[in-house]
Amino acid sequence: MRHLLTTRAILLASVLAIAPAAYAETPADTLVVAHAIDDIISLDPAQAFEFAGNDVNQNVYDRLVDFDPMDLDKGFQPSLAESWEVSADGMSITLKMRDGVTFHSGNPVRAEDAAWSLQRAVKLNQTPAFILTQFGFTPENVDEKITFDDTSVTLHMDKPYAPTFVLNCLTANVASVIDKETAMANAEGEDYGHAWLNTNEAGSGPYTLSAWRPNEALQLAAYEDYFAGAPAMKRVVVRNVPESSAQRLLLEQGDIDVARNLSPTDVEGVASAEGVKVQDEPRGRIMYLGLNQKDELLSNPAMIEAMKYLVDYEGIAGTLLKGTFVPHQSFLPKGYLGALEDMPYSYDTAKAKQILTDAGITSGEITTNVRDLREYVDVAQALQASLAEVGITMNIQQSTGAQTLDAYRAREIPVFIGEWGPDYSDPNTNAATFAYNPDNSDEAKATGLLAWRNAYAVPDNMNKETVDATLEQDAQKRADMYIELQKQYQAEAPIIPMFQRIEATGMQDNIENWNSGRSVASVMYRQVTKGE
Amino acid sequence: MIPPPTPSDRAAARRRRFRSIGGTILSLVLTLFGLLLVTFIIGRVMPIDPVLKVVGDRATQAQYDAAYVAMGLDQPLYIQFYRYITDVLTGDFGRSISTGQLVVDDIRRVFPATVELATLGTLIGVLVGVPLGVIAAARRGGIVDQIARVVALIGYSMPIFWLGLMGLLIFYGILGWVGGPGRQGIIYDGMVPNVTGMILADSLLAGDWDAFRDAFSHIILPASLLGYFSLAYISRMTRSFMLEQLSAEYVTTARVKGMSERRVIWGHAFRNIAIPLVTVIALSFGSLLEGSVLTEIIFSWPGLGQYITKALLAGDMNAVLGGTVVIGVCFVLLNLFSDLLYRVLDPRSK
Could you tell me which CATH class the domain B103-349 is placed in? Predict the structure, then answer.
């Protein structure tokens, strides 16, 4: 009996000891976000190119031009540069620096810092460097091509590029302005502070990085001297919570403010929970079908056309992808300059069968590889079913993301199902990969171009149109050019854009102005507020 | 009549001891070397391209080639391995390509989290599993035995993923008894100075009871879950060890001599199973160190299992090899430890 009593007493005591700690609400000036942040490799703007890394840089650095977090549709806006001027021949752009802005270190933000940051990114030549080097900068010439004086920075380009193109690229994270003094004080050899900036920051953005423990958590603290005003949330804590159900539980318990990786099922669950809301935002990712033109059957124009009628756009988006994607049939995502919103194709197996029969195709067999992600496999199986209706057998083999990507880059996947996310906020980012492939030979090894990966010999007029659009000085005319390009693409290309990503974010009712960056940017915290 | 030991006898004993220590160290080195070699080869023949992970899908061929050379992948396999081993001997495990940090720093961060969880898990497993197994054996076919069987069956057959989520839903979501996923509540994050990396220990060292309580409320559920799985194993093993002892003649003799059942079980039979039981517990602890990946994922526990798995899927061989060395050393040390305990527990080995 005494034994039992002690056991009970211990049990009761431990329950009492634990219970109060479980109901910790998030503090009023702190924003707590659950997100899968295990893809961060580097925080250096010259290298970072993953989602979570960009999310950090968007908030700790400023760029010469930036988006307004309250209205992304306005496009690029003055930021560290307060105005800009394009030379009469269109070959250079001069950006005038804003006065009185300081870095987190207290150093003033100078034109020299801005020029140095861009030169540095070009010289380090990491993956995102192409966003800048496409204007003719090379590690050798960049010191002469990007110049500065006391008040302004000038970019001297190799062609008269469209100003919208150049300025859109300057909103990319690789164009972040870095504190030269701080970075160089931590430089090792010729690395321009690269090793140090991989895990530290030297920016002027609304937040400073106060801690980062890979795969675990990162913390941002408000920069009180931020030039556009100190942010409302004094602390932002981003926790790595890989599991959707765990995120949902944390959200419903009030232990976090925002859950960013909820699965469709959990989104439904959260939507009906009290005190929690869901915000949908279109993101830039396009899910598409790539038909490898090395395959005899898949390169038949009738097959290409029929395929466009064999995708059950509405059914897949609703039932299989459960609202994480919406049908979208052009390569520019909604929210981009010149994005085409026409959707000429609908699910119609009878029509597809007619097209194939007219071309003499009544049977066939394809074996393809699909990445072992639930949603891709689902889409592949839906396609398999509709192909079967027109007499074509599609065998599906599953492999890991890395394996699929390797094979895709080696032009070895017959029917590719996957996503493409834009690299920067200008339409050229997608046009130059979907609709541009000047050399379709194996030797060209243009592994970065989706058209090349699918062995799609892009027609000459389309290649030319893609290049011409980057040079059009008038923004409206430029938008029209992209619309025309997408219409032709929609009609004949063997790469079939099907869906655009919709991101659902679950958050507490009192969170206002959340912005994941929509299709053009990364998450922004400085405008977020917390009500009562 | 045994003569007293002479000085030469003592010297011989000392030599034996040194030889056994030398042998242990040699076997440790060989084990680790073999482990590294196998892991290295598997890592290199795996169809995952580590360069792509570093430079990203958008890199140009030139950037890709530069990274390929910089990572030393253009060299033959044996040269790569030789370079790796010589670096490791100087304590340089290289940089992880999936976190961008030094592998040593990564492990210093993730390993304590795992040790903390595995230790508490094993503790729970032993404290419940051993008595359960002993009683189940002593009252064979009785109610405790039936319960133990069902408990073990569930432990063996339930997917840990499901149990973890249900546990979270019930004890965190509905009852609110424990903290949610993660090692700490947000407000305690970074409040306790990092000494051991184990938050329970660190908060005790700092004398911060609130932080301890918070950390305890977060660890208790995942630790109980791991504890449950090791309990299932430990109780089954304890039971079968005990049954074997209880059917031995010395037990019958003891009973015939009128010794109380409690003394027969705990004083005689249990003392004899202590030795194999130590090995079982050590192995179970070892497997919790490396094998709690799913628990770590569900509970957002930034531990070693998750670290190695993620690294493996990314082709991040520096991280995988570093983690393998740590796990390998742990297993060797655990073996060594149970060997030592053998000597203490088994009078014959003296």
Answer: mainly alpha
Could you list the residue range(s) of the whole structural domain that residue A221 is in?
30-231+509-530
- Mention every residue, 6+ apart, whose C-beta is less than 8 A from residue A386: A310, A311, A312, A347, A349, A352
The sign of the dihedral angle between the CA atoms of A34, A39, A41, A43 is: negative
* CB-CB contact of A507 with A277 (8 Å): yes
- Percent of chain B surpassing pLDDT 70: 95
Domain match, A198 and A345 both = no
Cross-chain CB nearest to B60 (options A130, A214, A242): A130
Give yes or no for A349 touching B (CB within 8 A): no
Distance CA A431, CA A450 (A): 10
ipTM of model: 0.77
What pLDDT digit, counting tens, does each position of B286-326 carry?
A: 888 876 888 888 898 988 988 888 888 777 888 888 888 88
With beta carbons under 8 A apart, name residues in chain B contacting A15. 177
pTM over 0.90: no
Quote the distance between the C-alpha of residue A39 and its chain's center: 13
The pLDDT tens digits of the residues spanning B231-244 come to 888 998 999 999 98
Residue A363 shares a structural domain with residue A426? yes
Q: How many CB pairs under 8 A join A and B?
A: 156
B165: nearest CB among A20, A245, A447 = A245
CATH at residue A477: 3.10.105.10
Q: Can you tell me the distance from the alpha carbon of A265 to that of A279, in angstroms, rounded to the nearest whole number? A: 15
| Contact across the interface for A405 and B57, Cβ inside 8 Å | yes
Residue A52: which of A63, A43, A61 has the closest Cα? A43
